[in-house]
Amino acid sequence: MIPSLKLINPKLNLVYSKVLQMVNYTIWSNIKGLSASKKNGRKIGHIRFKGYGWYNTLNYNQSGFKVDQDRSLLHLSKIGDMRIKIYRKIEGCIKAVIIKREGNRWFAIVQADQEPQPLPETKDVVGLDVGLTSFVVDSEGNEIENPRCAEQSEDKLARLQRRLARAVRGSNNYGAIKDKIAKLHKRINCQRDDFLHKLSRMYVNKFDIICVEDLDVKGLKEKGHNRGMHRSIHDASWSKFIFMLSYKAQSAGRKLIKIDPRNTTQRCSACGSIVKKELCDRVHECPYCGFLCNRDYNASRNILLTGMEQPVAPIESKPLHHIFVMQVLAMKWEAAPFRTR
Ligand SMILES: [Zn+2]
After folding, report:
1. Could you give the percent of the chain with pLDDT greater than 90?
2. pLDDT score, position 337
3. pLDDT at residue number 100
4. Spacing, Cα 223 to ligand 1 middle (Å)
5. Does any domain span residue 254?
6. Same domain membership, residue 106 and residue 214
7. In whole angstroms, what is the distance from residue 340 CA to residue 331 CA?
């Protein structure tokens, strides 16, 4: 339809052809993705028209761009040359450049093909259970605290949103508040991503095989009560965390095993008996073998055993080792920041 749309709206000729094709492609894959989730029983909404001011990305795929890292220049067809700040040295063959607007800031996201960088074997394996009380409990007995990035900025966000509601739509003030809100959202997202990147990096570095529950099968609501804003943030964080684990593992020559989540919480990881629990029960206490431990720790052991196809085995219960968000954030970034000029 693009050639005929160009006749109706000649302005489209000002946009690089590949960019238009990618919009087409994005809509099409969204429609396909949505119908797939619908088949999986997820509740889905409708695709909405994104008018001027709401559509925030341009995708230069395969051609139409040139990145000059030495001179910090980006060339885009039909737009021209522009100065860019490069935060990290780009290695590998560049496949695409995505231009993204966030508030009134612009970003170029560079996709590059890189060779996998296998890590030396550690012979260690781990099972991870993601939860609400703590972000992750692993089969080594570590309990990782939940990041509360959004909660810390909540009051500030609410205040800005009230101010936005009072402001005159389209006024300078309105735009300024909207920009502040976008900036705050960006900051919250960056903090959370930082945490997720570092935590997933930590697990990939330490373990040859990582076992997790297949959240697509589980349906996220089984993991906890299904209400409120924090829920959706948690859901998104878990999915993102597992996605990060999966690509980092792949690149490092590690294995990520997603297991069927049936009975991971209910089963006793010491004797195999089914011990029924409610969501509020934080402890696993087995009436058959006497194994007493944290509920999520029991689940993480089951996840590991199922993933490794091993039978249940008695184990000494010990208190969990609590790891704070700040301890994770204190980790160094995997790639050193890169600045020119
Ligand atoms: Zn038991």
Report:
1. 62
2. 57
3. 93
4. 22
5. yes
6. no
7. 24
Terminal Cα distance for the chain, rounded? 45
On whether residue 101 sits in a domain, the answer given is yes
* Residues 68 and 132 reside in one and the same domain: no
Instruction: Please say if the pLDDT value at position 307 is more than 60.
Output: yes
CA gyration radius, the chain: 24
Ligand 1 centre to CA of 311 (Å) is 13
When divided into structural domains, the chain yields a total of 2
Q: For the chain, what is the total number of helices (H) and then of strands (E)?
A: 8, 14
How many A from CA of 316 to the centre of ligand 1? 12
Distance 131 CA to ligand 1 centre (A): 22
CA 50/CA 29 separation, integer angstroms: 16
268 C-alpha to ligand 1 centroid (Å):
5
Among the listed residues 110, 21, 105, the one whose alpha carbon sits nearest the alpha carbon of residue 56: 105
Orientation of helix 149-166 relative to helix 172-206, angle to 10°: 170
Given a cut of 50, is residue 341 above it in pLDDT?
no
Instruction: State residue 115's pLDDT score.
Output: 87
pTM: 0.78
> Whole-angstrom Cα distance, residue 285 to residue 264?
14
- Ligand 1 centroid to residue 304 C-alpha, Å: 16
Q: Residues whose CB is under 5 A from ligand 1 (ion)?
A: 268, 270-271, 273, 286, 288-289, 291
Containing domain of residue 305, as a range? 125-329
Token representation of residue 168: 């005159």
Residues 6+ away with beta carbon under 8 Å from 230: 150, 151
Q: What is the distance in A from the centroid of ligand 1 to the CA of 293?
A: 11
178 and 270 in a single domain? The answer is: yes
Query: Rounded CA gap, 183 and 102, in Å?
Result: 8
- Beta partners for residue 129, in sequence order: 137
Task: Decide if 336 is inside a domain.
Answer: no
Mean pLDDT of the chain: 89
Of the three residues 113, 143, 168, the one that is the final residue of a domain is: 113
How do residues 171-197 score in pLDDT, each as one tens digit?
999 989 988 998 898 888 888 999 999
Q: Do residues 183 and 244 both lie within one domain?
A: yes
Q: Which residues are catalytic?
A: 129, 213, 296
